[in-house]
């Protein structure tokens, strides 16, 4: 290895270790960001303090009103709640609806969902001993969550917030109705129904006589939905990348707030909104409407790593109100796992919340990889064996490309003795060696890029699988060999310290075995390859897998297992193809026959040869000029 190659490799390591330093914001930028965050925090604290004061004042008024006669109480609360004054006083109670899949707990205060227990799934937590434990999985259970309507009551500037009302409860079978009376047979009601064996909850608003209670100009009822996403998975950093606030307008493609930005907001107007979904990596809480909501504003905020919550998601949804004497508005909740087939059957394109990727990657995952995986899962219970079979089937599908790659490598191997003779003839003149090598390749019908194109064509499938494993709930908490969760990293060995750049404080055995198998496969393929023109490429082949270890160490173990199986099958395919399908003697005879045929100078090889000859000519002219004696200065 010459001095330039050593310097190049050293620079690669330096860049890899220092890139975060150079890309990191300056101290001035950090200070400015901190000041901005502090200002926002102060404003939020002030806002929260004012809200607390207002709520405390309201509670004191309600408490005082509860201790006086009904007539006086109505008069005291009427200025704040109007005809809903009687509903502003009460005691919070809970009601439960349950089926085989979920248990939903409601509160009569606000008539909202207070907690959802997802029965067939569990949350993974890590104890002080760093061992994984499963506990019951709850959604929508954060006390900071809000789900409240602002009712545009006449004469009240800020309307009436349903979060302040105690609804009357009517529980019948698998449904419960929360009703807030406004007197004279007028009321606002919310009805929830939970059928059996489903994660879908039917939800209906009822407006009886509200045309006389609401402002005449009211065309919409504002719904504010704030959801603090819990940290459900073991790999929080990974979970954050796949959690967001999704939405879809009728007859339009779905959209989402950016899952990676610290703060992201979307304003959906123009077309009716079909649904809004608060989405974790593997679960979602969605509100859907067949008719569509008028509009929606959404915002997603990533919370600090030390926070107990993952993200804060906010939606402000405009529910249409026609102003009729009696009307209803039907909706549905979906609160459960991101099971693609189940969501797809629901319609409304709700399956878009599964983060399979966009464009060609998403298409490959949804309509090629996923159906194939579903078929294999139907046959085989072990998800690890399914990954192995999936790898085998993908390799079988791509074998024509792999064969062309191996065939091209074999042709280049057959010419290696000829290339060695060229090196002996031209010595250190690397440019001349390259030019003659390209001429020889064209003469024998060898495409030097023939081994590269098949690999490039496989990249879309590889990238699709990179998104498939951490997005498929079927791999969640599925064990295989030493891995306890194929959707997260396998923690084969725990480190007593944390390695930065996303490596973590563990060693993934699947990732480590992938690196070792890649190095073995690279060594085997490099034995008969010529790197004299660019020696640094030889060392880069071995450096890159080691660098990628830092990335795959915290990736889904299902992906690392797939890559390991893929490498092992690559080695097997290469050996079998070279020893059983390619006859080197016949290949050499075929190349000799091709050499005797007349050829047209066209294509990439001819252009490369012409370019090298031109470079050689310019180099020779420059050398001659350098050797000519320079005229003496007088």
Describe the structure concisely.
It is built from 16 helices and 21 strands. With 634 residues, it is an alpha+beta fold.
Give an account of the 3D structure.
The chain is of the alpha+beta class and 634 residues long. The chain folds into 2 domains: 145-355, Beta-galactosidase, Chain A, domain 5; 364-613, no CATH class. 44% of the residues lie in helices and 25% in strands. It has 16 helices and 21 strands. The chain has helices spanning 3-23, 27-66, 70-81, 236-241, 340-346, 359-379, 383-397, 399-414, 416-426, 430-444, 453-471, 509-526, 536-552, 557-581, 584-596, 603-627; strands at residues 94-98, 102-107, 112-126, 132-139, 146-151, 160-161, 168-172, 175-183, 186-193, 200-208, 220-230, 244-249, 254-256, 263-268, 273-279, 283-293, 295-302, 309-320, 326-337, 493-499, 504-507. Helix 7 crosses helix 14 and helix 8 (399-414) packs across helix 14 (557-581).
Low-confidence parts, pLDDT < 50 over ≥5 residues? 1-9, 19-33
Radius of gyration: 33 Å
Strand content: 25-35%
The residue fraction in helices comes out at 40-55%
Structurally, the number of domains stands at 2
Q: Report how far the terminal alpha carbons are from each other.
A: 47 Å
Number of E-state strands: 21
Q: Which shape, going by the Cα principal axes? A: elongated
Strand order of the largest sheet: 7-8-9-10-19-16-15-12-13
- Integer average pLDDT: 81
Q: What is the helix tally?
A: 16
Protein name: Membrane protein insertase YidC
Keywords: Cell inner membrane, Cell membrane, Chaperone, Membrane, Protein transport, Transmembrane, Transmembrane helix, Transport
Region (Disordered): 615-634
Organism: Haliscomenobacter hydrossis (strain ATCC 27775 / DSM 1100 / LMG 10767 / O)
């Amino acid at each position: 290895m010459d001095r330039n190659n050593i310097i190049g490799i050293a620079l690669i390591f330096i860049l890899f270790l220092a890139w975060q330093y150079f890309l990191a914001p300056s101290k001035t930028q950090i200070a400015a960001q901190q000041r901005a965050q502090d200002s926002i925090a102060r404003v939020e604290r002030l806002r929260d303090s004012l809200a607390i004061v207002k709520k405390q004042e309201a509670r004191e008024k309600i408490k005082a009103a509860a201790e006086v006669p009904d007539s006086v109480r109505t008069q005291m609360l009427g200025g704040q709640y109007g005809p809903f004054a009687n509903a502003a006083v009460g005691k919070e109670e809970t009601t439960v609806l349950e089926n085989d899949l979920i248990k939903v707990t409601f509160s009569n205060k606000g008539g909202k969902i207070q907690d959802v227990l997802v029965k067939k799934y569990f949350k993974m937590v890590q104890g002080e001993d760093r061992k994984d434990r499963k506990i019951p999985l709850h959604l929508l259970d954060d006390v900071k969550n809000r789900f409240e309507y602002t009712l545009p009551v006449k004469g009240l500037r800020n309307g009436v917030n349903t979060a302040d009302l105690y609804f009357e409860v009517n529980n019948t079978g698998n449904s419960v109705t929360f009703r807030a009376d406004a007197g004279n047979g007028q009321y606002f009601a919310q009805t929830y129904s939970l059928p059996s064996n489903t994660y879908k909850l039917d939800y209906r608003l009822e407006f009886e006589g509200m045309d006389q209670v609401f402002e005449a100009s009211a065309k919409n009822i504002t719904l504010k939905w704030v959801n603090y996403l819990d940290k459900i998975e073991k790999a929080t950093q990974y979970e954050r990348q796949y959690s967001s606030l999704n939405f879809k307008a009728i007859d339009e493609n779905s959209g989402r707030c950016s899952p990676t930005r610290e703060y992201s907001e979307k304003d959906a107007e123009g077309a009716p909104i079909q649904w809004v979904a608060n989405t974790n990596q593997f679960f979602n809480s969605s509100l859907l409407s067949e008719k569509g909501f008028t509009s929606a504003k959404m915002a997603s905020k990533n919370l600090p790593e030390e926070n107990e919550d993952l993200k804060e998601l906010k939606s402000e949804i405009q529910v249409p109100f026609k102003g009729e004497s009696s009307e209803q508005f039907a909706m549905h909740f979906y609160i459960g796992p991101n099971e693609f087939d189940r969501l797809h059957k629901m319609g409304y394109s709700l399956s878009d919340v599964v983060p399979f990727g966009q464009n060609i990657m998403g298409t490959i995952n949804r309509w090629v990889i996923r159906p194939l995986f579903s078929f294999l899962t139907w046959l085989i219970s072990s998800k690890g064996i399914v990954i192995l079979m999936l790898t085998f089937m993908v390799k079988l599908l791509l074998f024509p490309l792999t064969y062309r790659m191996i065939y091209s490598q074999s042709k280049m191997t057959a010419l290696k003795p000829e290339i060695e003779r060229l090196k002996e003839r031209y010595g250190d003149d690397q440019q001349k060696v390259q030019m003659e090598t390209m001429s020889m390749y064209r003469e024998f019908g060898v495409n030097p890029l023939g081994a590269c194109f098949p690999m490039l064509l496989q990249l879309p499938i590889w990238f699709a699988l990179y998104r498939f494993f951490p997005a498929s709930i079927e791999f969640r908490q599925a064990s295989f060999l030493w891995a306890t969760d194929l959707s997260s990293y396998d923690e084969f060995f725990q480190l007593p310290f944390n390695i930065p750049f996303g490596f973590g404080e563990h060693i993934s055995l699947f990732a480590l075995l992938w690196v070792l198998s890649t190095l073995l496969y690279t060594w085997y393929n490099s034995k008969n390859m010529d790197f004299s023109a660019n020696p640094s490429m030889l060392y880069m082949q071995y450096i890159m897998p080691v660098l990628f270890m830092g990335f795959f160490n915290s990736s889904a173990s299902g992906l690392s297992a797939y890559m390991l199986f893929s490498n092992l099958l690559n080695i097997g395919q290469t050996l079998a193809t070279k020893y059983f399908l390619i006859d080197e003697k016949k290949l050499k005879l075929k190349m000799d026959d091709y050499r005797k045929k007349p050829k047209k100078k066209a294509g990439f090889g001819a252009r490369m040869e012409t370019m090298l000859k031109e470079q050689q000519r310019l180099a020779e002219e420059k050398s001659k000029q350098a050797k000519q004696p320079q005229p003496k200065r007088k």
